[in-house]
Amino acid sequence: MKRRITKAAALLLCFALVMLSLTGCGKGEAEEGPYTASAVDSEYSMADEVEKFLEAVDTQYGYDLAYRLSYDDELWDNELGWRTAGSDAEHRAADVIAEEMKAIGLEDVEKVGTECDKFQFNDASLAVAGTDIEVMPASYQCSGTDGDLTAEIVDCGAGTEADYEGKDVEGKIALVGVDQVNESWIDNYILQAAEEGAAALVTYSVDGYGRAGDDSVNVQDICTGDIIPTVAISKQDADKIIEAVSEGKNSAVLNVDVDFEVGGGTTYNVMGTIKGKSSENRIILSGHYDKYWYGFQDDSAAIGLVFAIAKAMKDSGYVPENDIVVVAHGAEEWGVSDSVFDWTMGAWGMIEKQKDWQGTTLAMLNCELPAFRTSDNTVAAGCVPEFRTIVSKLVNETGLVVTSGDVAMERNSFDSSTMEDGVTYRWHGVPYFINMFEDEDWLHANYHTSYDNADTYDEDTFRTNINWMGALAIYIDQTPALELDLTQVADDIEANLNESIDAEAGTDIEEYKACIDTLRTAAASVNEQAAQINEEYEKAAAAGDDDEMAELREQGRKLNSKTLAAFAAVQPAFCRVDDFAAYYGHPNMTANVEYIDGTIEGLENGVLWGEEEDGAMDYAWQINSALDYNWMLFSKGVAEEGLDHYDPDTMDAEKSLWGYQRTVDILRVGDATYELSRMDDIEGVDTEKYIEIYKNAREEALGYILEYCNSEMKAMKEIASMLN
User: Fold this and answer.
1) Partners of residue 292 on adjacent β-strands
2) pLDDT for 4 beyond 70
3) Which strand (E) or helix (H) includes residue 107?
4) What angle separates helix 636-646 from helix 186-195, to the nearest 10 degrees?
5) 217: Cα within 13 Å, side-chain hemisphere
6) Do residues 513 and 494 make contact, with C-beta atoms less than 8 angstroms apart?
7) Is 142 helix (H, G, I), strand (E, B) or coil?
8) Bridge partners (DSSP) listed for residue 474
9) Is the peptide bond before 299 cis (omega within 30 degrees of 0)?
10) Each residue of 276-308: pLDDT tens digit?
11) 576 Cβ partners below 8 Å, 6+ apart?
12) CA-based angle 98:271:94, to the nearest 5?
């Protein structure tokens, strides 16, 4: 089906860089091409501190720490190198990280434990009788086999509902080729296999991730509950098994040894501090240390990077105005079962416990995959929308950023997604930055495979990311008034306003726009106050007027309290997620209306799949942020269960964590999409009953939109009042 190509494009739009795919949703046009600089060239008061910091940076130290965290087998749970949520290896690594923090001079070093679902992958084997096939599969986050599972292995093609037709897999091992970029996440393959009665599932990548080679094995996180043992093997090994099965050699023995405990684990977030002149506020430098395979880029190199920044600050004698807190998070890749918001569990527990960090943290600088050479030799800063302005200023105006070798830096920011630990801090009122890049090829080849190894290391990329993140931390630390630009919130809400659909829903568009202007005006006034404080501070610093500098710092602290409180209020009021993307407003619900209109028009014209992708089904799969594509691939039960996790009315608060009540409402039109997508054409079909289903959903969507708009207008007025 060529429609799957369209599906791939949509998913890549959402997931094309995590951190793990981190999408450049908010990237602006470069002013003069990527930025490069060989030395600090700045009149800002912190220029000397930045220069001293850069001189003290030891990239070899950062690399060596990353290498140890990647390759020291004492820090592995199995021979594949895994270190997962709450596991013994994760605990051993936490101890190593804590000692390293002390070694570089950090103070108040502490391991902060938080509950997680434990997953420790110990060992696995898969053998096929009568052949020389014997491999070690990689286990997904679920229970093992409790000893040997001896059963027939059945080739189930692509693992969709249709692929099981005519096949008996009851009590057997299903072998399925998956594509978790262009088709579906692992959960639906598992649920379909279990519904068919399979005792276990063996998967291999046919496209999407794991493209480094046919010997590559790729896994992602399971978002469904503990259903059946599920493992991954390489396509190379899968091809051998498929050939053996075709020859009648289909008796297999699968053994998966894991420790899997729902609610029975503890993950440790390790923290240490460079003490500031005041501990009233702080800047956080962070990465995560759990991993699959060697996990060199994801995320051992990030730990190496933030430690290299902290060490350079200490070695250069830098005394910050505010605390600089280094945090190594656990359980980022996965940490809770039966949730589509299952990642960044360690960070969630961390910020939940550190209540005093909420509203007093100036910024978090999180790091993911920081040291591989991108296809265009560039790095970039990602951030929440409110920090777009500061990124542009840092790179284009301050002269504080120094690049390395032929690596350049993008001049404008990318909007952060949900694909790393920053999202959990954001929901708790902490604005943040993250390093970013555009390189789908690297992600699809190396991400979550053994090819994420030290061979991917590029020192110039690593150094450039250290340089800009360190310079940014010092800039924020030394600048009295935090440049948290809430006009960007107003801009995004306005950009995501669909006037015709929102008006049809009953929204007073003129009032809505007036509320946007009210918020923007109030935010612009705060920006002006911050700019004035910072400008006067620079003058006082140039004049050596310590008393004036102290007074301006106090003014900055008071203003920062206001802007951080407003930032915290913005998140529940306006920010929604559709799994991978985070945005202000409700554009995906207005998009639902447009997709439904296209679906209805296609049915009225008698076209299911159009040559111009204008048929009913070309639109229908995109409803509910493309979650409805699963109705075309899997059974009704499987597709329905997937939607339940995203629906605000059915999601579990204890399981949904950072996703709880952050999604828009789900439109339940899946039964119609399921039935229509399995028709060759609709000649003679009573399309009116299907049209009625979609029309009813459209009215439901308009009702939600009116609720959202009214809520957003109320919040815009309240937040503007906070800022005035």
Assistant:
1) none
2) no
3) strand 107-128
4) 140
5) 19
6) yes
7) coil
8) none
9) yes
10) 999 999 999 999 999 999 999 999 999 999 999
11) 582, 583, 584, 585, 586, 588, 662, 663, 664
12) 40
* DSSP 8-state symbol, 15: H
Q: Which residues of 553-579 are buried (b: 16+ CB within 10 A; e: fewer)?
A: bebbbebbeebbebbbbbbebbbbbbb
Give 466-490 as a DSSP string. Answer: HHHHHHHHHHHHH-SS----THHHH
Residue 262's H or E segment, with its range, is strand 251-274
Q: How is 622-681 classified by DSSP, letter by letter?
A: TTTTTGGGHHHHS-HHHHHHHHHHH-TTT--HHHHGGGTTTSPPPP--HHHHHHHHT-S-
| Structure tokens that stand for 562 in this block | 């206001």
Say which residue the tokens 């086999």 belong to: 145
Q: How far apart are CA 559 and CA 546, in angstroms?
A: 20
The answer to whether residues 495 and 435 touch, using CB atoms and an 8 Å cutoff, is no
CB 444 within 8 A of CB 390: no
Supply the pTM of this predicted model.
0.95
Residues 214, 206: Cα–Cα separation, whole Å: 9
Task: Render pLDDT for 396-441 as a digit per residue (tens, 0 to 9).
Answer: 999 999 999 999 999 999 999 999 999 999 999 999 999 998 888 9
Residue 572 host element (H or E): helix 546-574
As a whole number, mean pLDDT of residues 588-598 equals 98
Q: Which residue, chain included where needed, has tokens 């705060």?
A: 526
CB of 486 within 8 A of CB of 385?
no
Are 136 and 231 a contacting pair, CB within 8 Å?
no
Mapped onto helix, strand or coil, the DSSP state of residue 219 is coil
Two tokens at 507?
Answer: 């929204």
For residue 363, give the 3-state DSSP assignment.
strand
Q: Of 140, 153, 143, 154, which Cα lies nearest the Cα of 186?
A: 140
Mean pLDDT computed over 439-461 = 95
- Is 23 within 8 Å of 15 (Cβ atoms)? yes
Q: What is d(CA 503, CA 511) in angstroms, rounded to the nearest whole number?
A: 11
Q: How far apart are CA 27 and CA 18, in angstroms?
A: 15
> What does the alpha-carbon distance between residue 677 and residue 671 come to, in Å, rounded to a whole number?
10
Amino acid symbol at 482: L
**Residue 109: count of CB within 10 angstroms of its CB:** 17
CA R_g for the chain? 26
Please report, as a single letter, which amino acid is at residue 510. Answer: E
DSSP 8-state assignment for residue 104: T
Q: Is the dihedral of CA 542, 543, 545, 551 positive or negative?
A: negative
Q: What stretches of 342-458 show up as alpha helix (H) in DSSP? A: 345-353, 388-393, 422-426, 440-446
CA distance 164 to 99: 52
Is there a contact between 255 and 149 (Cβ–Cβ < 8 Å)?
yes
Q: Are 83 and 122 in contact (CB under 8 A)?
A: no
From 24, 62, 20, select the one nearest 368 (Cα to Cα): 20
Helix (H, G, I), strand (E, B) or coil at 210: coil
Q: What is the distance between the alpha carbons of residues 50 and 73, in angstroms, rounded to a whole number?
A: 37
CA gap 650, 25 in Å, rounded? 29
Helices (H), 294-428: 301-315, 345-353, 388-393, 422-426
